[in-house]
Amino acid sequence: MTSVTVSPKFQVVIPKEVREAMGIVSGQKIQVLTYKNRIELVPIKPMKKLKGFLKGIDTNVRRDSDRI
């Protein structure tokens, strides 16, 4: 597990291995979330890059007979 230090300006550096694994580039927006007792950084992807990411997903949904 990699650890980072918070600077006096409350900044952190995302380690190179993490940036490369997640495809994070300079200037990219990242959403910051708090969940229970942790901070999560979620890269925001442009809509054009999301095109087709659900290709092949099973869209069949079982429904009760009274819900058709």
Q: What labels describe this entry?
A:
2 strands; 2 helices; alpha+beta; 16% helix; single chain; 68 residues; two-stranded antiparallel sheet
- Which structural class matches the secondary elements? alpha+beta
Low-confidence stretches: none
- Total number of helical segments? 2
Terminal CA distance: 49 Å
Mean pLDDT: 89
- Strand arrangement, major sheet: 1-2
Helix content: 10-25%
Number of strands: 2
SSE pattern, N- to C-terminal:
HEEH
Strand content: 15-25%
Oligomer: single chain
* Overall shape: elongated
**How many strands, what sense, and barrel or not for the largest sheet?**
2 strands, antiparallel
What gyration radius follows from the Cα positions, in whole Å?
Answer: 19 Å
Task: Describe, in short, the structure shown.
The chain is an alpha+beta fold.
Description:
- 16% of the residues lie in helices and 18% in strands.
- With 68 residues, the protein is an alpha+beta fold.
- It has a domain at 15-47.
- Strands 1-2 form a two-stranded antiparallel ribbon.
Write the layout of secondary structure elements.
Blueprint: H1 16-22, E1 30-35, E2 38-43, H2 47-50
Antiparallel strand pairs: 1-2
